[in-house]
Amino acid sequence: MARPKIYSIRLTDDERTKLNKAIKNKTTCKTVLKRCQILRDLDETKGCRLTHAQIAHTYAVCPATVSNLIRDYVNKGIDSIIRYNISPNSAASRRKADGRAEAKLIQIACGPAPDGHSRWTLQLLEEKTRVELETPISRETIRRVLKKTNSSLIGTTTGASHQRKTRHL
């Protein structure tokens, strides 16, 4: 026996307009777009009644996502669905180097090495970025940025450890 519905979704004309506007906006992120589409399909005044499992299957989300979306709409309103809140613990919000800082770092690393050195090291790059950038960037962030670009600009690895050993029979 199925559980009875706890919440029923009845969108007003104003809410439906907000949802359609968010769906048609080309800058809307995928998460918000999917939320709006799910909420629009859950509207009982529309007449098309799909189960939560059918909607979850249609939009390739977990059924708990549909339930959470309904709960958020009922408790917080339509604005909580349309707005995308990034968690302060997410990787995007903890990012230390934005695109401009990364570009400046790569520009420095591709430039000539400082006097008395044959190549850039992480420590040298850290010192140079402290002078040139507004926000200090740690060695680990510098390493990640350069690794992301598949750069071999830094002499932190030895060639022998990265060589592939082949076995001859």
Number of domains: 2
The overall pLDDT average reads 80
Strand content: under 5%
Report the biggest beta sheet as strand number plus sense, adding barrel if it closes.
none
Structure, explained:
14% of the residues are buried. 52% of the residues lie in helices and 0% in strands. It has 9 helices and no strands. It folds into 2 domains: 13-82; 99-156. The model is unreliable at 155-167 (pLDDT under 50). Helix 1 packs antiparallel against helix 2. The protein has 169 residues and is mostly helical. The protein has helices at residues 13-24, 30-42, 52-58, 63-76, 78-82, 99-110, 122-132, 139-148, 159-162.
List keywords for this structure.
169 residues; mainly alpha; elongated; 2 domains; disordered C terminus
Task: Write a brief structural summary.
The chain has 169 residues and is mostly helical.
What's the helix and strand layout?
Layout: H1 13-24, H2 30-42, H3 52-58, H4 63-76, H5 78-82, H6 99-110, H7 122-132, H8 139-148, H9 159-162
